[in-house]
Design a protein that fits this description.
The complex is a heterodimer.
Chain A (H helix, E strand, L loop, with lengths): L2 H29 L7 H17 L4 H24 L5 H20 L3 E3 L6 H9 L6 H23 L2 H11 L1 H6 L4 H27 L1 E3 L6 H16 L3 H25 L7 H22 L11
Antiparallel strand pairs in A: 1-2
Helix pairs in contact in A: 1-6, 1-9, 1-10, 1-11, 2-3, 2-4, 2-9, 3-4, 3-9, 7-9, 10-11, 10-12
Chain B lengths: L7 E10 L7 E11 L4 E6 L5 H9 L6 E6 L2 E2 L5 H4 L3 E4 L3 H4 L6 H9 L13 H11 L19 H13 L5 E5 L7 H18 L3 E5 L2 H6 L3 E6 L2 E6 L1 H6 L2 H12 L6 H5 L5
Parallel strand pairs in B: 3-8, 3-9, 6-7, 7-8
Antiparallel strand pairs in B: 1-2, 1-4, 4-5, 9-10
Helix pairs in contact in B: 4-6, 6-7
The chains are: A mainly alpha, B alpha/beta.
Chain lengths: 303, 274
Amino acid sequence: MDAVGVILGFSFYEGLVFGLVAIGVYLTLRVLAFPDLTVDGSYTLGGAISAVLIVEGFNPLVGILAALAVGLCAGVITAVLNTKLRLPALLAGILMMVGLYSVNLRIMGGANVSLLREPTIFDQAGELLGIGSNSIWVSIIVAFLTVVVVLLILNWFLHTDLGLGLRATGDNEEMVRGLGSDTDMNLILGVSIANGLVALAGAVVAQAQGFADVGMGIGMIVMGLASVIIGETLFNPRGVAGLLVAGISGAFIYRLIITIALRLGMAPGDLKLVTALLVVAAMAVPYIKKKVRHEWIPPAERW
Amino acid sequence: MDKNTSLLQVRGITKTFSKGTVDEVTALDDVSLDVNAEDYITIIGSNGAGKTTLLNVIAGVFPPEEGKVLINGNDVTYLSEYKRAQYFGRVHQDPRVGTGAKLTIEENLAFALLRGQRRGLKIAINEQRKELFRSALAPLGLGLENRMDAFVGTLSSGQRQSIALTMATISNPMLLLLDEHVANLDPRTAQIVFDLTEMIVQREKLTTAMITHNMECALKYGNRLIMMHRGKIIVDIGHKDKQKLTINDLINAFEQAAGEKLVDEAILLSRTEL
């Protein structure tokens, strides 16, 4: 494959996997209006659980499902802190993120777990497809299938009566209670699903890169945010399905930008700063545009 | 249900805000009220009389310090708002409170349709429901039935309030609570929403409690009139007496019961407006 093909293929794969994180962020921030910072911790949690289980001899697929399960639990705790114990959502997320750092260290028994010479879902998929596990195609196919399944389920779910309750909760809590739906339960369910997805992404990435590391989740929330905003800005989507696809597409474009930047010689350590600046730009530019045109501007979100 | 039990019984409710501070205010002072089936109560009173607080306690937005709220004889005083919502349809003064801006018209109605029921994994919008929504929206005469996939946030206040009213009534509530629901609308739209209210209440024979700031409305609509003042119900007039009642009677009744002159400008002024 030529260089462009490699960049595109790699970005596509990464965009798909990190798209899961973006979808998680989209679900909390945009659907539930719940700014959830648990993401950095639950991503690593998913990676850690799946890596440890594989080393312990479990099937890699079990590792993936276990990651999903613990991610769901982490989300439940964050949302319970907010809804039942009345901690501000941002603080609840930060506390979870910090707390999970220790939990992740405990799970892994150290700062990282290597999956060298251990089986992963990519080996299994490569075997199944008969093309060997080292091809980028295996990664793309595995990631693509995962994302398609997740998107289809989520799109269906958000259109059900229960899912509509989640969307309504992010829109107008007073109305939701007045119409007999429990906003606390809706938030707990939604934040739980979001973190389940994020942990799932962490597990897939850990198995793809061959290790889990306690720092692998740092900046995930910002990356997810960047993807959501890029997707929204570029595609201006309408409706649930459009927003979901825009999140994934945003993640792909974000990874494409990052991959190209790295190819051009940017130091990997600078990535987080570039991402942060990207988010600042994406959020500030529409505001500055309006300011210049003297348009009405809504007050800044305090979350 | 016991024949002698009222639909809703409010027993000795007291509610104080900012208790123990200089701003302490007794919003409801030992209020009792029985609402019977097919009552259409208009509630009138000046600012701070406790009208909205009464509806909030009934709907369970916050609990009272003292007293009980009973529905069909069952004590619901401490039942949370969302659990109690199965009994009540409510329209607020601000159209934004009763509708979801980021949801479409049909999604708002679908969400309202399941008030008090379990929300499961059935797709929320289907043809059967759409047909139901169209037939609920068509009588409004606003053409909303032809644009049910429009986001509610893009609609005017009058349109939003009409949808809020439809949402509050679509699943036949035991009691419809209206909290000055036309006060934020321009006079023409207010009249339209008022007429809609009247139409729906009569058609569905809904038991209704409507707060209004407007004496004429309070007299014109409904079959029972309640006047509140400083956290108390000071006048409660039934159907027979209400028919003969004039605004001057009402002012006299107020002054007699409250032992002071009616000075609320908003109430007096609103004699001339709608």
